[in-house]
Amino acid sequence: MPLGFTLAALDLVFPAFCSICEGTLGAGRRDPLCGRCWGAITRLAAPWCHVCGASSPTAVTFDGPHRVEHGREGAAPTTGGVGPPSPGRSSESCDSGEWVTQPVVGAAPSRPCSTCTTDPPQYDYARSAAVYEGALREALHAFKFSGKRALARPLGDLAIEQCVASLLEGIEAVIAVPLARERERERGFNQAALLAQRIAKRLGVPTRPRWLARVRATKPQSDLPAAERRVNVRGAFRASRAVAGRHVLVVDDVLTTGATLGECARALRGGGARCVGVLTVARVLHAAV
Fold this sequence. Notes:
Blueprint lengths: L2 H11 L21 H5 L3 E2 L12 E2 L8 E2 L8 E2 L10 E5 L5 E5 L10 H5 L6 E7 L2 H12 L6 H12 L9 E4 L4 H7 L3 H13 L8 E3 L11 H8 L3 E3 L7 E9 L3 H12 L4 E9 L6
Parallel strand pairs: 7-12, 8-11, 11-12
Antiparallel strand pairs: 1-2, 3-4, 5-6, 9-10
């Protein structure tokens, strides 16, 4: 029985509602987000800086899920959906009917921005899918603070579908930003870990939660001004020796000033990581990276 027919039949008996607006999911749904809320997310265009990932908002949306293979150097991104490829990627249909997708040559910027030139971050590159506002902000709040773990699926997919074309090749593992033990017990889960699991699955690489640990508790970054955030997280993380020589992708929900992710990258660099990338679902614009 086709999946679309099954979902329609289930919705008649057990109506499904959006985790944000509480309306029926309807066309364009990305469960548990309705099509309207999914489409209202302001995506970010391809970055103009290949380091910090600075980019501009865009109205571009994506029609289908994609699956990407990054487990080996030079592996080609592939999609598991039946729709056409997203902008910024070339594609062709393989024998199985899936779309094989690869970044367009020259699509990624070749120079860092002036900020990254004068004050380079600890990570090699950072990418974010969308602007932290409106529907996406509400979705992330529902995910983190209302226990709606099912949102990890569409939010993780958003990060991959929007950013895969500009991720560096050869990612070997995905690492979530560790949450303080007390906060994780209070919340019941680490939202970054759930996102990392979804993203790793789409990339076809493992998650390595033991490769990065939080060694001391910190104040919530949201309570601090930008100038104090780096001081707050300095020395808060420790990397395993297993990261030595590896290309790892660090995942979090939001990039604001980049202080936490920068400190994670610092620890991973200290452990010998060859390349450290950062991927977040959302980015706060007009904040120093």
